[in-house]
Design a protein that fits this description.
The structure holds 2 protein chains of 2 kinds.
Chain A lengths: L4 E7 L5 E6 L4 H14 E8 L1 H4 L16
Antiparallel strand pairs in A: 1-2
Chain B lengths: L2 E7 L4 H10 L3 E4 L6 E4 L5 E4 L1 E4 L5 E7 L4 E6 L1 H8 L3 H24 L2 E7 L3 E7 L2
Antiparallel strand pairs in B: 2-5, 3-4, 5-6, 6-7, 8-9
Helix pairs in contact in B: 1-3
The chains are: A alpha+beta, B alpha+beta.
Chain lengths: 69, 133
């Protein structure tokens, strides 16, 4: 499926780069910027937004040690 | 929006470093492969490096490769650089990293054949690209 994707780069005064991908759901968007991230350096923070999970199965388990109620 | 990444830049490519130094109007000398160049510091003391950045008439900034991390590091008599060039170590690294990041981003965009739709250079640099791939 050919959909348009937008990648925005913001380089701050310290030289840190923030990359934002729009229009690419799931793993596609990770692949899109992988090489650029590796060329630049060290990924400090990565956050997914709702669009990422649209086509991905997610499984989250929350454990509670104290047994709850 | 699909994802958001924050990357701390590490200086790993000499080609982009060279472009960044040109942007900042620094003269420099790059050693031939397998060779070194001499870097001047306090009272004419010297050390060897792969690149010598001429900060002023008497002080240089050396560029050395840290083989463990694969990144380039800067060595200098920073007091000498500050008093003759007027730039502190912190300012120098910030300015250089900023221009370096810009050139790495532009180079990678070109490699991928992406179209630059918007570019803005101010305190922060913004580049927006579009792709159908």
């Amino acid at each position: 499926m050919a959909t348009k994707k937008t990648v925005s780069f913001t380089i701050d005064e310290n030289g840190e780069v923030k990359i934002e991908v729009k229009g690419a759901p799931g793993e596609d968007c990770m692949k899109l910027t992988k090489e650029i991230e590796e060329a630049l350096g060290l990924v400090e923070e990565r956050s997914m937004t709702s669009e990422y999970y649209q086509q991905e199965e997610t499984h989250i388990e929350v454990g509670s040690g104290d047994g709850g109620t | 929006m699909s994802h958001f990444t924050s990357v701390k830049t590490k200086i790993k490519q000499l080609a982009s470093l060279v472009r960044a130094l040109k942007d900042l109007n620094y003269d420099f000398q790059l050693a031939e492969e397998g060779q070194t160049v001499s870097v001047r510091g306090y009272q004419g003391q010297t050390t060897d490096a792969v690149m010598c950045i001429k900060a002023s008439k008497t002080y240089d900034i050396g560029v050395k490769l840290n083989k463990e991390t694969g990144t380039y590091e800067f060595v200098a008599d920073w007091w000498g650089v500050e008093t003759t060039r007027g730039v502190t170590e912190e300012e120098f690294i910030k300015q250089l990293t900023r221009r370096y990041s810009y050139h790495v981003v532009k180079q990678e965009i070109e490699k991928k054949g992406w179209q630059v739709e918007e570019e803005e250079q101010g305190e922060q640099i913004h580049i927006r690209v579009g792709t159908w791939s």
